[in-house]
Amino acid sequence: MNALLLRTVSSRLFWPVVMLLVLVLINVIAFPDFLTVTVKDGHLFGSIVDILRNGAPTLIIAVGMTLVIATRGIDLSVGAVAAISGAVACSILLGSSDPGNPATVAVAVIVALVISLVLGVWNGFLVSVIGIQPIIATLILMTAGRGVAMLITEGQILTVDSAPFKELGSGFWFGIPVAVVIGAVIFAVAALLTRRTALGMLIESVGINPEASRQAGVRARVLLFTVYAFCALSAGIAGLILTANQTAADANNTGLFIELDAILAVVIGGTSLAGGRYSLAGTLVGALVIQTLVTTVYTVGIPPIVTMVFKAAVVTAVCLLQSPTTNAAFAQLRQRLAARTARVKEAAAS
Amino acid sequence: MTATIDRPRAGAPLPTKPGRPPRRLVDRLRDVLTSPKSGPVLVTAVLFVAVFIVGGVRYNGFFSGQVLLNLFVDNSYLIVLAVGMTFVILTGGIDLSVGAVVALSTMIAASLLQTGWSPGVVIPLILVLTCVLGLLVGLMIHVFKVQPFIATLAAMFLARGLCYVISKDSISITEPTFVALAVTRIPLGGGLSITPSVVIALAVVIVAVWVLGFTRFGRTVYAIGGSEQSGMLMGLPVARTKVIVYVVSGFCSGLAGVLFSFYTLSGYPLTAVGTELDAIAAVVIGGTLLTGGYGFVLGSVLGVLVLGVIQTIITFEGTLSSWWTKIFIGALLLVFIILQKVLTARRR
């Protein structure tokens, strides 16, 4: 019993899950029908569904970010890539004669995703071939990317009127929001590819020591290209969802701060920023924690924008809990307690 | 910090070889330009002059002293920010919170002045608060071994959120002292003038140059950037210095916020979004190595001026739109990072 408890507590998923449960509990106490999911017109409705739908873009980006962080990298450019992807799609739709045509939408989506992929390859090139620190390499695209997005939209907010495109953001498939379905598919694909094949292990080995893994025959360069391209692709998808949700491409504000939310989700999920170990399940929980936090703050009646203070508190708490200093202090405390129990037992025996 | 150690390199002619002075000069020039210490700064200086000349050739009235001085007037807060960021980056850290702290300072200033506080109390209060924030971040980084990136990210969220706690809307500043500081021009003769903010910013630069170049603290900052381990083994006060560096950055962000509120005469929660990137870009373009250990405050000032002159050219051009600034800054950042990479690779 004790051993089981210890194993649960020391699990990396323990604190994030506890945090999620506490948040859900607060909500349930405040709003008894928080967990109720109702079916209207064959579509699911309810706070939980809202959390899943609004959290989907962050989750999608966070999945890509998890793999990048597993290689001891980081991708700051995801927000800018999301903005570019949305801008490209909207400008194609606006430029076409029939924006409501599913074929036009398909072309817009594909072009936007291909451009995102190219941007990811660019990041991968800077990191793996030129050898620039990831935080700086992606900082370049983060700075310039918003400029590029504005260039595409010519500094305006492009509003599109296209029913099939709108579906991406606010539509339903078999009663489930499309965004949630996309998020689930991407999560499943990433989990299957990295956990059912050796890919995940190879990514981790690059994160632990790129040089050693290269000498052991791992093609580190190709792997780095792959993770950055995947991360940018997921950012592009998230950008399309965000844009479709607003039915407008706003180069300045689409995906603003989303890179930080994504990194936060990854960190809350217990993935170390030092690379080498990652947990996609943790990222899922992390993204849910963030979105639940946002929704909670909103429904409790605090101005939604103040959530940043709460996010700061959560990041700080998680970082301090994960810190080696805290762990060492806990270990010492546990040892002292054990020693005291032993002494008490000894005294009782003699 | 400007003294260079002459080391004969393999294949290079001996420095004392007689009879070929021009070759030696070229050699020395190449040495200076390819040194990771002074090379990027010189390249930035050349770039700044080149961009300024291009501007002067293209536009009427660009070649005036006031255009040059306006670079300082418009960017005095960014200069102060870049100075603080230089300290942090020299130790190999990074501070993402500066933009949010600037916004928070303008919010605190605007809201307290609105309720009738005196500027003589408000400004010191802001500086103390931002120093405390820097101290907390520094302790988080040092004691709890949180990565600077994450710790300052948390500080950024906190500061940005607190802005909204204070107010969601813009608050204008009508306090006479602030207005006076905003409109005062210090004449320099010949029709040229600067603002008091420029004087403050330059004072900060001078103090920073002195601290980094001529004090034990400054040398420890460079030593930590070179190798924290070695610094520790040499018995340098690594822990204290690492924490103080973030206090310095906090102080500079607070001061930059005050200067920014002189400049805009208002507090708005969404001001200075992305300014941390401008500051980092200025420091990098100014030749400070992101891994720490090499760099000069004056380089960062030069970095700010390069960003400023690009902005000015875009303003003069009129048809070019503001997004080109971002693209140019990104491109410049790339060029300089690759330059750093090449220079440091050659030296190792």
TrEMBL record, chain A:
UniProt keyword list: Cell membrane, Membrane, Sugar transport, Transmembrane, Transmembrane helix, Transport
Record-annotated membrane-spanning stretches: 12-31, 51-69, 76-97, 103-122, 134-152, 172-193, 222-244, 256-274, 281-302, 308-330
Superkingdom of origin: Bacteria
Chief place of localization: membrane
Gene Ontology cellular component terms for the protein in this record: plasma membrane
Pfam families in UniProt: BPD_transp_2
Intracellular or extracellular location(s): Cell membrane
GO molecular function: transmembrane transporter activity
InterPro entries: ABC_transp_permease
Membrane disposition: Multi-pass membrane protein
Protein name: Simple sugar transport system permease protein
From TrEMBL, chain B:
Keywords, alphabetical: Cell membrane, Membrane, Sugar transport, Transmembrane, Transmembrane helix, Transport
Region named Disordered: 1-21
Coiled-coil positions: none
Listed transmembrane segments: 38-57, 77-110, 122-143, 188-212, 243-265, 277-310, 322-339
Taxonomy, superkingdom: Bacteria
Main location: membrane
NCBIfam families per the UniProt record, alphabetical: PRK11618.1 (NF008630)
Protein name in UniProt: Simple sugar transport system permease protein
Organism: Herbiconiux flava
UniProt lineage: Bacteria, Bacillati, Actinomycetota, Actinomycetes, Micrococcales
